[in-house]
Amino acid sequence: MINALRGMKDLIFEDAERYRYVTETAAKIASNYGFEYIETPILEETRLFRRSVGESSDIVGKEMYRFTDKGGNDVCLRPEGTAGVVRAFIQAKLDRQQGQKYRFFYFGPMFRYERPQKGRLRQFHQFGVESFGEKSVAEDFTLIQMLSDIFDALGIRYSVQINSLGCDACRPPYRENLVSHLEGIREELCEDCRRRIESNPIRVLDCKNEHCQELLSEAPRITHNLCDDCDRDFQQLQDLLSNARIPYRVDPNLVRGLDYYTGTAFEFVSDEIGAQSAIAGGGRYDRLVEYLDGRPTPGIGFAIGIERIMELVRIPEKERSGWYLGTMIPEGIDSILKLAHKKRKNGEKVVVEYSPKGLKGHLKGADKVGARYCAVIGEDEWKNGSIWVKDLLRKEEKVIPIQEA
Ligand SMILES: [Zn+2]
Ligand SMILES: [Zn+2]
Helix, strand, or coil here: 283? Predict the structure, then answer.
């Protein structure tokens, strides 16, 4: 027997249903917000992610699903969705349409070569959106509102955490300030944090180590060191959220470590899956398009980890729908196939049982596939050109001419 690879999982029955429900619900809401569907390749050049996700990240450092293809190209399976969409945006020369806004949504599998014993999947799924060309903080608010709408629709409780990461004007002095503070407590910090003081000091702030978190409570906060523009935007974002009655909390330790992240960062967390786990995250990346050789273009996006919310999704009870068609005699098959095709062309759901069997067997079959109507041709019906139909919802049955079925 051949099994799926380690860390890879089939989406089947209930899981498949949930995946489809999540992506369809989110896609519908994103479309209502004016976002358009985009699909980019799963396989990309490795250097796309080295430059966008960053060399110092765990994703690129340890977790890339990377190999050399037959043509000798260094390629990898996408570990996240933003890089590919930004590449596509630049490749389509949309960065040259200054002043235009482009908004996209995507969903699909992502890959990280993690140790499977952590219970993490190597192939997992995300739904995400990316918005290009809009500098206004109203767009940041709108993305957060869209995400709340999506989780509301899925029946998932959440809380929102926000932060501002500043800009090219206010972040460098803040960083210096932070580094000098961290140098003072260097010896007490964990090994990862000590290494990050040089490579990526802002990431020290989101260390998961409890001892580090205690030490960091005195660290200077970016939100106290914002320039006037960034401060005004951050205030406006909070006003917009309050006015829309979206509850939020400012979390100064919510950071994203790379230079192209600017301004708003946000995370949605749920306490339904253990201690305050992130179920979605996003933020501004006003310099990412430049980083990938495009013309400077403001951008912002978010991504939802679908596996993280799968168990929390409340799918509405499915009602009986469509038809189940069967026959009790071999000669009846042609009539039910014709009727099935007519109905399918008409947009109705039809399941056909080809094997002739008794009425009891057919009713069981109709129940199993969740059909509303069970229609069966028996000896008499076949002779008269009629069909027996039972409405399984109303529990009514009758024999009608087959053309009327
Ligand atoms: Zn600033
Ligand atoms: Zn630490």
Answer: strand
CA 168 to ligand 1 center in whole angstroms: 6
- In angstroms, the CA 269 to CA 254 distance is 12
d(CA 166, CA 148): 24
- Ligand closest to 193 (CA) is 2
CATH of 14-170+226-312, one of 3.30.930.10, 3.40.30.10, 3.90.180.10, 3.40.50.300: 3.30.930.10
- At residue 261 the predicted structure's pLDDT band, cuts being 50, 70 and 90, is confident
Distance 276 CA to ligand 1 centre (A): 29
Q: What is the pTM of this model?
A: 0.92
Mean pLDDT of the 5-23 span: 95
Question: Are 82 and 139 spatial neighbours (Cβ–Cβ below 8 Å)?
Answer: no
**pLDDT above 70 covers what percent of the chain?**
99
Give the Å distance between the CA of 167 and the centre of ligand 1.
4
* Ligand 2 center–CA 193 separation, angstroms: 4
Which listed ligand is nearest to 230 at the C-alpha? 1
CA of 240 to the centre of ligand 1 (A): 19
* CA–centroid distance for 17 within its chain: 15
Ranges for all domains in the chain classified under CATH 3.30.930.10? 14-170+226-312
Residue 94 CA to residue 101 CA, distance in Å, equals 9
Q: Which CATH class is domain 323-404?
A: alpha beta
Determine the pLDDT at residue 255.
85
Instruction: Identify residues whose C-beta is under 5 A from ligand 1, the ion.
Output: 166-167, 169-170, 227, 230
Q: How far apart are CA 138 and CA 316, in angstroms?
A: 32
Backbone angles phi, psi at 128, to 5 degrees: -145, 165
Nearest ligand for residue 209 CA: 2
Higher pLDDT, 59 or 396: 396
**Under 8 Å between Cβ of 391 and 397:** yes
68 CA distance to ligand 2 middle (Å)? 35
b/e per residue, 248-276, with b = 16+ CB within 10 A? beebbbbbbbbbbbbbbbbbbbbeebeee
